Structures are given as C-alpha cells and as structure tokens.
Amino acid sequence: MTGMAEAISDFHWRCRHTWRQSARNTAWCLLGCSIGDFGTILWFQIYAPETNPFLILVLAITNGLLTSIALETVILSRQLPWKDAFKTAIGMSLVSMIGMELAMNLTDWMLVGKMMLTWWSIIPSLIAGFMAPWPYNYWRLKKYGVACH
Predict the structure, then answer these.
(1) How far apart are CA 106 and CA 16, in angstroms?
(2) What distance in Å separates the CA atoms of residue 9 and residue 134, rounded to the nearest whole number?
(3) Which pTM was predicted?
(4) 107 Cβ partners below 8 Å, 6+ apart?
(5) For a designed S-S bond to 111, which of 71, 87, 121, 137 qualifies (C-beta 3.0 to 4.6 A apart)?
(6) In 3D, which of 146, 139, 124 has the Cα closest to residue 34?
(7) Average pLDDT of each block of 10 consecutive residues along the chain (149 residues)?
(8) Domains of the chain: which residue ranges?
(9) Nearest partner of 139 among 99, 112, 87, judged by Cα
(10) How large is the angle between the packed helices 122-131 and 16-47, nearest 10 degrees?
(11) CB contact set of 66 (below 8 Å; sequence gap of 6+)
(12) Is the dihedral of CA 128, 132, 133, 135 positive or negative?
C-alpha cells in the first residue's frame, strides 16, 4: 500500500522533461494519424463528395489509426525485429489515438460544417489533435513510465 500511495503522491504536472517527451510522442502519433485521416477525407472530397459524412468520419478515423500503427512499426523496426515492432505499435494507447482523431475531425467539422479539408481548417485541426491527447500522454508517461510511442 505504501508504494502505491507514494506513487500517487509523487505524481505532478510540472516535469518539463516529461512534457517534452510526451510532446514528441504525441507529435509522432499526430503525423501517423493525420496522414490516414486527411488522406481519406481528401480522397472522398475529390472522388466521391456525395458520400455520407458519417461514413467518411468512420473511415478517416480507422485509416488514421492504421497509418499511425504502420508509421510506428516502421520507426520501431530500426530498433526491434519487425514482429516486435508491430506488437509494440499495436500496444500503443488507443485512448490517445482515438481522442486525437475525434478532436481533429470535430474541429474540422465545426470549422467547415462537413467532412472536408480546407486550407484554413487543417492547422486548427492539427492543433486540436495534438492538444487533446497530450495531457493524457504526459500522465501515462509520468505515472506509469509508458509512452504512447
């Protein structure tokens, strides 16, 4: 009991090193998620603009998760065998990635009014996608020593 109580009392939000590390981790996740997410939205915007926006949303989130896992697998394969890199990538925090995806897409929807990319909606969507999971990634890294990437 003492160890757990001590771990809880040791947690704080003031560690600059953890904020920097969790920011790097979150940025890598954002890169992977945004490639699949924005790519899907752009494809439907160009080739099938009449598609149900909810379907586009679901596919964009799914593809964002898949590209994030793929990017992380490639990055980790430099340090680990492919199988271990893939297992590690699959074990990333889905909570963080789903929160990121939802924040990006809801921001885009609120700014544009539908699932569509515009030159002025991409940056706010990326900022929202970064900011939404960043505190969670800090907490997870600081409290458990577990990074999302």
Answers:
(1) 29
(2) 21
(3) 0.86
(4) 121, 124, 125, 127, 128, 129
(5) 121
(6) 124
(7) 54 94 92 96 97 96 95 89 88 87 96 94 98 94 75
(8) 30-144
(9) 99
(10) 140
(11) 36
(12) positive
